[in-house]
Write a structure and sequence with these properties.
alpha+beta; 10-stranded mixed sheet; two-stranded antiparallel ribbon; about 20% strand
């Protein structure tokens, strides 16, 4: 096999009596597939939990991994607010208006109209230093600060472009992995090398309406419950799928193959071990993947979701068997020759896959990322 371009990551993860990802009405997210409704976990939910995980393999704990922040108030809280402690309100206000529209576009002066934007710490630090410089040069004169900021804004896109070209991970590790879209500055857009599908149950949904009550401890003389409510709980075995464009990842990390290897190794751990759960106190929705398959190849990736178009028995052994049978048919039809590693708690073989622990799979992924660098 030639040097692989893509790493495909397939998982099967079980959860019981949980509410992992809710819709706008507070119910579990769903997906119609194969003629039945499935319980679903959105890709946005999965990525957020991998990003913010406090874990031995946390992404933010990797040396050289710059932080990033997603907010409508990046300029307000991280650029202008520090100035208000040392300069007049009038001067800070004059700078804020220009910096908000520079970063968020023409609607930047209105919080509700701003795009929720992702900026890396290097970008924020540069903006804060520029605001500090303009404030000092104005010598307390708010009008002078406003005029200087207007001139600065006219050169903003060109200057921040130069800064980004000369900084390591200017938009932070989050953008380097999952991309960024900035409608006010298309040159700030970053293509995501990590592609994540919505996870769904391999079987029809298994919901339960949970009726619960709360008793007032200080009103013992009054019988009955003080509060009566309902919530939805679901159980299921979820198929998850993600793809890593290895050259794309390396490019977004500034060509640092060692960093790419460490990042991908940690990501494999997070995908297997981090639960995308809400309602922690009442459901303890913690679980780990009972199956993980990694595939490395140079052809266009393809999900194995088709293995579960016909609802499967919700047991890991049967789900792995269904996946393996579908994979064998794909191999026979396409012969794309992916190299595979598998970690499984099931007693079922996966075609042409070498078995190993999660540590073995993570280390293999690390090696693939390191080898993605051009020789």
């Amino acid at each position: 096999m030639t040097q692989p371009r893509f790493l495909q990551i397939h998982t099967l993860s079980p959860y019981a009596a949980a509410l992992l990802n809710r819709d706008d009405s507070g119910l579990a997210k769903r997906l119609p597939y194969g003629g039945v409704l499935r319980t679903r976990i959105s890709s946005q939910c999965l990525k957020r939990h991998w990003r913010i995980a406090e874990d031995p393999h946390a992404l933010h704990g990797i040396d050289g991994a710059a932080a990033a922040y997603r907010s409508r108030e990046l300029v307000t809280k991280m650029v202008i607010e520090p100035l208000r402690k040392r300069f007049s309100k009038e001067l800070a206000d004059a700078l804020e208006s220009e910096f908000q529209t520079a970063v968020y576009g023409d609607s930047g002066t209105s919080r509700k109209n701003r795009q929720t934007l992702l900026l890396g710490k290097p970008e924020i630090d540069w903006l804060a230093a520029e605001a500090e410089r303009l404030a000092r040069e104005a010598e307390g004169n708010a009008k002078a600060a406003e005029q200087a900021a207007q001139a600065w804004k006219r050169q903003f896109k060109a200057n921040i472009k130069v800064m980004r070209q000369n900084a390591a991970l200017p938009a932070g590790l989050t953008a380097a992995l999952f991309g960024r879209m900035v409608t006010s500055d298309t040159e700030a857009n970053i293509t995501a090398p990590v592609h994540v599908a919505h996870a769904f149950t391999v079987h029809a949904e298994e919901p339960e309406s949970d009726y619960f009550t709360a008793v007032d401890d200080l009103s013992a003389d009054e019988p009955g419950a003080d509060t009566i409510q309902e919530t939805e709980l679901t159980s299921g075995l979820f198929y998850g799928y993600a793809v890593v464009d290895l050259p794309g990842l390396l490019s977004n990390l500034g060509g640092n193959a060692e960093l790419a290897g460490r990042v991908l190794r940690n990501l494999i751990y997070l995908i297997a071990e981090v639960s995308p759960g809400a309602k922690l106190g009442s459901t303890a929705p913690y679980g780990r993947a009972s199956f993980m398959l990694l595939e490395a190849g140079d052809r266009q990736p393809r999900s194995l979701a088709e293995a579960y178009r016909k609802p499967c028995c919700p047991h890991t052994d049967q789900a792995v068997a269904a996946l393996s049978a579908h994979l064998a048919r794909l191999d026979e039809a396409y012969a794309t020759g992916e190299e595979r590693r598998v970690m499984s708690l099931a007693a079922a073989d996966v075609p042409r896959a070498a078995s190993g622990s999660l540590a073995v799979l993570a280390d293999w992924a690390k090696t693939l990322a390191e080898k993605a660098a051009p020789s």
